[in-house]
Design a protein that fits this description.
single chain, 195 residues, mainly beta, five-stranded antiparallel β-sheet, 1 helix, 17 strands
């Protein structure tokens, strides 16, 4: 009496008879079918990994927009002063902290920031955007009369996880805000650098 022995390949539940081929289907030998099945398994694994990578990338939705909040004049102060934009319109991804005025990058990538302000006559306005305590860009108004003047600026920055971006009011200048939300800070992720 002969005993037929089977073992299982690494493909999963595909039996491979020991010492023989599996016969043929549509002219393909059993060994060819096992090779084809292994190739399909490898493609499936690669597709599943790509899907997970895309899901992870899709989860990086980061954007915020805020204005100074309370109506009135901020400044002038004798030193540069961080501004806290407490009237938050949106904060997708919770990367902006209205208590500190800091945006902290949760993922490595390219981000875009913009800010605007209006002076409080008759003083000048000087807003400065910093990345990790280093000045990047600024905007300035110097009124020659008792009118309100606005200024704005924007920049795209490559950020690492944990990098911080924030706005300071320059020393001896002031900025104004009211219910119209003239003084704003806005940022969003353009794309993540996923490795």
């Amino acid at each position: 009496m002969s005993v037929n022995r089977c073992s299982y390949s690494s493909v999963g539940q595909v039996p491979v008879e020991t010492g023989t081929t599996l016969g043929s289907i549509d002219g393909q030998s059993g060994i060819d079918l096992v090779k084809a099945l292994r190739a399909l398994e490898a493609k499936l694994r690669a597709n599943e990994e790509e899907l997970e990578r895309l899901k992870k990338k899709e989860s990086y939705k980061i954007a915020f927009a805020a204005s100074l909040g309370n109506a009135g004049t901020y400044g002038p102060f004798s030193t540069d002063t961080n501004l806290f934009y407490s009237n938050v319109f949106s904060n997708t991804g919770n990367a902006y902290n209205s208590s500190t005025g800091m945006f902290t990058a949760p993922v490595k990538g390219l981000y875009h920031f913009s800010f605007s302000g209006i002076n409080s006559p008759p003083t000048s306005m000087f807003l400065l955007l910093f990345k990790n305590d280093k000045l990047v860009i600024s905007c300035y108004t110097n009124p020659s009369d008792d009118r309100f003047y606005t200024a704005s600026n924007s920049v795209s920055l490559n950020l690492e996880v944990g990098d911080q971006v924030y706005i300071r009011l320059g020393s001896n200048t002031s900025v104004f805000n009211n219910d119209n939300g003239h003084t704003t800070f806005v940022g969003h992720l353009l794309y993540a650098n996923i490795e």
